[in-house]
Structures are given as C-alpha cells and as structure tokens.
Design a protein that fits this description.
It is globular and about 65 Å long. The longest helix is centred in the middle third of the chain and has 15 residues. It has two domains: 124 residues, Rossmann fold (3-Layer(aba) Sandwich); 164 residues, Dihydrodipicolinate Reductase, domain 2. The protein has a seven-stranded mixed β-sheet with strand order 8-9-7-10-13-12-11. The chain is α/β, with parallel strands linked by helices. Helix 1 packs across helix 11 and helix 7 runs parallel beside helix 9. 30% of the residues lie in helices and 19% in strands. Strand 12 and strand 13 form a beta hairpin. The structure holds NADPH dihydro-nicotinamide-adenine-dinucleotide phosphate and N-acetyl-L-glutamyl 5-phosphate. InterPro entries: AGPR, AGPR_AS, AGPR_dimerisation_dom, AGPR_type-1, NAD(P)-bd_dom_sf, Semialdehyde_DH_NAD-bd. This is N-acetyl-gamma-glutamyl-phosphate reductase. Its EC number is 1.2.1.38. One of its GO terms (cellular component) is cytoplasm.
C-alpha cells in the first residue's frame, strides 16, 4: 500500500511520516508541501534525518492519485475543503485530519469555523473516523474524516455512558486541557514561549469549534443529548490532552458497576485502556502512543460521575488515529505500525 502525506511540514504531517516509515504494510511513497517543494524533510525536522531520504514534492492531485493508494491531508481547515475533492476526483482514497469534513451540517460548519463549507457530496460521503466507534464500513470509504483531538478524548470517555443511557445527557460538562503542539507548528502571540512557559490559559470560551462535533456524535448515540458545556485550557506541556468529564448518574449504581461497564465496553479495543477503579491516568502515560487511557469514578454520595481520559493529541488525537483508520480502510490489522508502548517518563 503506497501512502502520501500532504502538509508534511506541519506537526501532524511530521508525525505521519514517523509512523508510516515503520508501518509493516504501508510504504511512504511521497510527502508534499505548498511552501518547501524540493527541500529535504530534515531541513524542517532534523529528528527525521536518515528516515526518509526523500525531498518534499509539490501538491499535484492527479500525480499523487496515479502513484498512491491513500493520501493523508494534514492541512488546515479551509485548505482541506479545497484539496480533498480534487484528490477524490482524481481517484485517491483520503484521510483528512482537519475539521472540514466532520460536521454534516454545512451551516454549523460555517458558523463555528467561519469558513465556506466544503462540497456537499464529498461531505456527506465522508465517514467520521472515531475508530473504536465507526458507524460505517471503512473498507468502503473513499474519505475518512479524522476526529478532532478533543472530541477523540471526550467521546471515547463518554461512549459507554451515553450508549447505555446511564447519565442525564443535559448534565454533561467536559473540562479539557491540551499541550501547545495542538496549535500547530507556527508560534502565535498566544502560544510562544514567554506566554506559555509557567502559565495556564483558558481559551475559546463557549466558542470552541469542537463543541458541535462532540454534540453531533453524542446526539447520534443518544437522542436526548442537549447542548454540552465544554471548556478548553492550554497547559505548558508539549503534547497531551486530558479531559475531565462530569455527568449526573442514576440512583443506585455503584462505582464498581460503572468501571465494569467501561472495561467490558473496551474489552476488544486494543487502544483504549480502562484503569482499575480508583486509579487515574496522566498524559505522560500515553505520550508518543496511540493509546487513550480512561478512568471512571462515581461519587456514591451525589451520584456524580467523573470520567478522566488522556491521549497524545498528535497521535491518537491526530496522526496515530489516522493510521489506525488507514488500517481499517485497507482491512489490515488495526494495530499495524501502532502497537508500541508510550514513551515514559
Ligand atoms: N496539532 C494537533 O494536535 C492536531 C491537529 N489537527 C488538525 O490537523 C491539521 C494539521 O495540523 P498541524 O500539523 O498541527 O498544523 P501545522 O500548522 O503544524 O501544519 C499544517 C501544514 O499545512 C500546510 N499548509 C498550510 N497552508 C497550506 C495551503 N494553503 N495549502 C497547502 N498546504 C498548506 C503547511 O505545510 P506546507 O507549508 O509545507 O505546505 C503546514 O505545515 C489541521 O487541520 C489541524 O487542525 C487535528 C487534530 C490534532
Ligand atoms: C492548542 C490549540 O489551539 N489547539 C487547537 C486544536 C485544533 C484542532 O485540532 O483543530 P481542528 O480539529 O478543528 O482541525 C484548538 O483548540 O483549536
């Protein structure tokens, strides 16, 4: 299977190159840049030195489609919406990492992303790629829309609860924190060193573009879902997301029953590891890996449920899940190229 990466000089693209280079069944055929054609990838990312030996190529959809089986678009929202239909028309199968093909309602997309919605036919044919809970046959998909980093952590945390209708859907609060690499490679006035070192910031209050994505999926799982409350914070670390999710549970359930439900729900999911009752994951425990580690707790005094989920935003939150989706698309072992343990400490 030959793969190409577009947006190769971004953090998501670099992570795709790292993962695809050691994938047992995929060959990294080419990587593409809109600004650095002809340069080596080492010029942008010395850590990839000796790994590829190839130069960055221009983005030519026809050429890419004629030479490869699958292309990853690790490009910004608003760019993917232009690029992906061209790749699809040229016959490529595509896994897009941006937010452009996640929201099925174009008006909602325009409202939250403040950009023109993508081509309607391509949008409606896109399969939402939360891999553990795919709702369509990935082997048939021409386009998989990779979930956002926060939605991945939040939805994996909420799925057993919502699918079993255990919590009051109106009571859900998702309190999320991310490392700075979530903002991409380019430094901004919000993310540069003096702003983020030794600092903690809340951002996009009641305005985060992942809010409707989470609501869209939750309402597919449970028709009683209303608007959620979602807060996002930047913390001074490079990678990692933690979501702490609160919901009102039913009378009479025990903490052990809830943990058992989570462990059963993810029994067959290699990449979701449910912790023993009373133990909680930290972001470093999934660093550099495709794992999502989860804990669920129940305060039997108040019936409040608390779920803690952690992922690496660049792996399970982006490029790792994209490779996991490629594995599903081509019907190969889901863990191929991804089954390694996190880097620790
Ligand atoms: N960082 C994260 O944790 C996550 C990111 N995402 C999403 O994945 C995508 C990539 O993110 P990330 O790698 O962090 O972003 P970066 O900003 O680090 O990289 C994006 C890359 O896109 C390319 N690009 C920019 N403008 C254009 C254009 N007009 N045409 C073609 N290519 C362009 C650039 O590469 P070049 O100049 O070489 O073309 C750039 O390096 C984004 O949509 C992001 O929202 C999703 C989940 C998590
Ligand atoms: C730290 C930081 O700024 N993180 C970004 C994550 C962006 C992202 O992944 O965007 P899409 O999924 O919408 O493409 C944010 O919160 O907007």
């Amino acid at each position: 299977m030959k793969a190409a990466v577009i947006g190769a000089t971004g953090y998501g693209g670099a992570e795709l190159i790292r993962l695809l280079q050691q994938h047992p069944e995929a060959t990294l055929h080419s990587f593409h840049s809109s600004s650095k054609e002809g340069e080596s990838i080492e010029a942008s990312y010395p850590h990839l030195q000796t790994v590829s030996g190839m130069a960055l190529e221009a983005i030519d959809p026809e050429k890419i489609a004629s030479e490869t089986d699958v292309v990853f678009t690790a490009t910004p929202s608003g760019v993917s919406s232009e690029l992906v239909p061209e790749l699809i028309d040229a016959g490529n199968r595509v896994i897009d990492l941006s937010g452009d093909f996640r929201l099925k309602d174009p008006k909602l997309y325009e409202q939250w992303y403040n950009k023109k919605a993508p081509d309607e036919t391509v949008l409606q044919n896109a399969v939402y790629g939360l891999t553990e809970w795919l709702e369509a046959d990935a082997t048939e998909a021409q386009l998989i829309s990779n979930p956002g980093c926060y939605p991945t952590a939040a939805l994996l945390g909420l799925a057993p609860l919502m699918k079993q209708n255990i919590a009051n859907p109106d009571s859900i609060i998702i309190d999320a924190k991310t490392g700075v690499s979530g903002a991409g490679k380019k430094a901004t006035p919000v993310t540069h060193f003096t702003e983020m070192n030794d600092n903690l910031k809340i951002y996009k209050v009641f305005a985060h573009q992942h809010t409707p994505e989470i609501e869209q999926v939750l309402s597919g799982w449970n028709s009683q879902t209303g608007p959620i409350t979602f807060s996002t914070h930047l913390v001074p670390m490079t990678r990692g997301i933690m979501t702490t999710i609160y919901a009102q549970g039913p009378d009479g359930m025990t903490a052990k029953e809830l943990t058992d439900l989570y462990q059963e729900s993810y029994n067959d999911s290699y990449f979701v590891r449910v912790r023993e009752q009373g133990t909680y994951p930290s972001t470093k425990e999934v660093y550099g890996s495709n794992f999502c580690d989860l804990s669920v707790a129940l305060d039997e005094r108040t019936n409040r449920i608390m779920i803690v989920s952690v992922i690496d935003n660049l792996v399970k939150g982006a490029s790792g899940q994209a490779v996991q989706n490629m594995n599903r698309m081509f019907d190969i072992e889901e863990t191929a190229g991804l089954g390694f343990a996190p880097v620790y400490p």
